[in-house]
Amino acid sequence: MDLDGIYRAEYGRCVATLARLLGDISIAEEAVQDAFTVALEKWDTPPPNPGAWIVTTARNRAIDRLRRESTREARHAQALLLYQPDEPEEVGPVRDDQLRLIFTCCHPALAPLAQTALTLRLMGGLEVPEIARAYLVPEATVAQRIVRAKKKIRDAGIPYRVPGGAELPARLPPVLTVLYLIFNEGYASTSGDLVRTDLCLEAVRLARALADLMPDEPEVLGLLALLILIEARRPARVSPTGELVTLTEQDRSLWNQELIAEGHALVRRCLKRNRPGPYQIQAAINAVHTDGPATDWVQVLALYDQLLARSSTQVVLLNRAVAVAEVHGPALALASIEGVDLPGYHLLPATRADLLARLGRTGEARAAYDEAITLAGNDTERTFLQGRRAEL
């Protein structure tokens, strides 16, 4: 029985549903964790609908807990409400518990790291060490931010809802960020297997729901296009024997052409609006990667220059170097990342190693690969880097 797989696939949905029913994220999370403990004891084989079983069990255990701990009439009333068979009245403009939970976690009263860390914990079921590795910060910092964020949501009475239309644009940036991070964790997991398909598909589904909610926001369409175009390449990303396959080496016949067509159509819709933003430009880069039998690296580099003008981050500089190497050669690419500072990020030494190897600087390349291998948390990527080092 793959209880770990069920946990990863159902945890976020179950917590979101229980948070709506209970109105308290911490109690919802504890109840879901308790329900999975019960499942471990009782299941010989999973029921037909594991998520529904978990929600029902978690709800019953939460009722018992609230009744035991009730010292005031309000607590009794809260517990009794859970017995009602009718669904609570919908508050937000969409009927999606997970989207509501994301907007709650991304409330502007919370610090940016708290917003994304809490969302990754609740929606992705990521553990604190995984989130800490993704953000390159100490585990204690992440744990403290998550605890404080849940307490602030409770104490400040932050509503569990998707905000109204007038509030949506201002609340949008952190929501886009966490959806991107959820997908990215699925596409390149910080530990274990390389790909977590459940997170990739869930991020795409939520991005679609957000696009339905805000169809005139170009960056929402840009994010959806970006996720779809990356998701289209996922079937070719790992070989049948489990090895990582780089973009240039992938079998393009395995790419999902239906998703590629949809992604390209979304990029064209964004271009017509003429309000470019970082997600739209990243989507355009991935549209170039999926257009034709080979990547037009000159066009990709031009798009990275546009992205750099709007989002001058260290990761963008590093990614741009890959295009620089294809257009102008590895020497200029290596020079372009000399000042990049990404402590603990394995792709920086991995990129340097590749460029050094192409320049024939084998000793330096080995040292860079050693650093990347040490930093890589993902088994598949670590094996890939070890293979590249062995080829030198």
Tell me about this structure.
This protein is an all-alpha fold. The protein has a domain at 4-81: Rna Polymerase Sigma Factor, Chain: A (Orthogonal Bundle). The chain has 19 helices and no strands. The model is unreliable at 83-94 (pLDDT under 50).
Short description:
With 392 residues, the chain is mainly α. It has helices spanning 3-22, 25-42, 50-69, 73-81, 97-105, 112-124, 128-135, 139-155, 168-187, 197-213, 218-233, 257-273, 278-289, 297-310, 314-328, 330-336, 347-358, 362-375, 379-391.
List the helices and strands and how they pair.
Elements: H1 3-22, H2 25-42, H3 50-69, H4 73-81, H5 97-105, H6 112-124, H7 128-135, H8 139-155, H9 168-187, H10 197-213, H11 218-233, H12 257-273, H13 278-289, H14 297-310, H15 314-328, H16 330-336, H17 347-358, H18 362-375, H19 379-391
- Tell me, what is the CATH class of the domain at 4-81? Mainly Alpha
User: Helix and strand string, N-terminal first?
Assistant: HHHHHHHHHHHHHHHHHHH
Question: How is the biggest beta sheet arranged?
Answer: none
Average per-residue pLDDT, rounded, comes to: 88
The name of the CATH topology of the domain at 4-81 is: Rna Polymerase Sigma Factor, Chain: A
Contiguous low-pLDDT stretches (5 residues minimum) are: 83-94
Radius of gyration: 23 Å
What quaternary form is this?
A: single chain
Helix content: 55-70%
Strand content: under 5%
The count of β-strands is 0
Q: Structural class, from secondary structure content?
A: mainly alpha
Number of helices: 19
CATH architecture of the domain at 4-81: Orthogonal Bundle
Terminal-residue CA separation: 42 Å
Shape: globular
